[in-house]
Specification:
Order of helices and strands: HHHHHHEEEHHH
GO molecular function, one term: superoxide dismutase activity
Mean pLDDT: 86
Number of helices: 9
Helix content: 40-55%
GO cellular component, one term: mitochondrial matrix
Protein name: Superoxide dismutase
Pfam family, one: Sod_Fe_C
Radius of gyration: 18 Å
InterPro entries: Fe/Mn_Superoxide_Dismutase, Mn/Fe_SOD, Mn/Fe_SOD_BS, Mn/Fe_SOD_C, Mn/Fe_SOD_N, Mn/Fe_SOD_N_sf, SOD_C_sf
Shape: globular
Structural class: mainly alpha
Largest sheet: 3 strands, antiparallel
Strand order of the largest sheet: 2-1-3
Strand content: 5-15%
Length: about 240
């Protein structure tokens, strides 16, 4: 699962009773019943990028990638860990009001960490295969559900351009019906907020911090060029695992 892949290196041995991935899920979207007490805490750390900051140029500048990764993603992680620590303390004290109050911060910052961890994997330098179209089962699924790759890209670009304010546009697999869907989420809401059956294959960050230094306020140009460094191999791997 994606949550297991993005868990940080530091895990406190208090445990929530169902292992690291379960702890991460519970921390992200805590459904707290009467008498539930935290016995542990998982903290998260900034994942390394699988490429240099400048490797995605000219589609995405090295300056943007460095700021996006080191400043923005790190801030989400810092605030996520802080909120989780406060949550653990509130649960230990039985402070239900504090637990409820913290959920918006956990959703926003935890979602920021989850979304960006996926986003980095969705990108790949053009000289290493970034932008090469999908083949195999995912390619067939795109043709079946959207008509063509070009039609899918057009749909995602249109949805991303039309999204008001900040958010994300996703290519998702509905694992229940085995069909592909395009979804958008506001702010840092992770895709799971649109349904637990949705698996993110590709996510495009349309917050201004993802493109403004290079593209100013012309979001459509950013969306047009990001496909030149899209890592379809990653998306195909996730898809094949889910439909197997």
């Amino acid at each position: 699962m994606a949550l297991r892949a993005i868990a940080g290196k530091k895990t406190l041995t208090l445990g929530l009773g169902f292992g690291p991935s379960g702890a991460a899920a519970a921390a992200s979207f805590p459904g707290l019943g009467s008498g539930l007490h935290a016995r542990g805490l998982v903290t998260f750390s900034l994942p390394d990028l699988p490429y240099d900051y400048g490797a995605l140029e000219p589609a995405i500048s090295g300056e943007i990638m460095q700021l996006h990764h080191q400043k923005h993603h790190q801030t989400y992680i810092t605030n996520y860990n802080k909120a989780l620590e406060q949550l653990e303390e509130a649960m230990t004290k039985g402070d239900s009001s504090k637990v409820v109050h913290l959920q918006s911060a956990i959703k926003f910052n935890g979602g920021g960490h989850i979304n960006h961890s996926i986003f980095w994997q969705n990108l790949k330098p053009a000289n290493e295969g970034g932008g090469e179209p999908p083949h195999g089962s995912l390619g067939w699924a795109i043709d079946t559900d959207f008509g063509s790759l070009e039609a899918l890209v057009k749909t995602m670009n249109a949805e991303g351009t039309a999204l008001q304010g900040s958010g994300w546009v996703w290519l998702a697999l509905d694992r229940e019906v085995k069909k592909l869907k395009v979804e958008t989420t506001a702010n840092q809401d992770p895709l799971v907020t649109k349904g637990a059956n949705l698996v993110p294959l590709l996510g495009i960050d349309v917050w201004e911090h993802a493109y403004y230094l290079q593209y100013k306020n012309v979001r459509p140009d950013y969306l047009k060029n990001i496909w030149k460094v899209m890592n379809w191999k990653y998306a195909s791997g996730v898809y094949e695992k889910e439909v197997a």
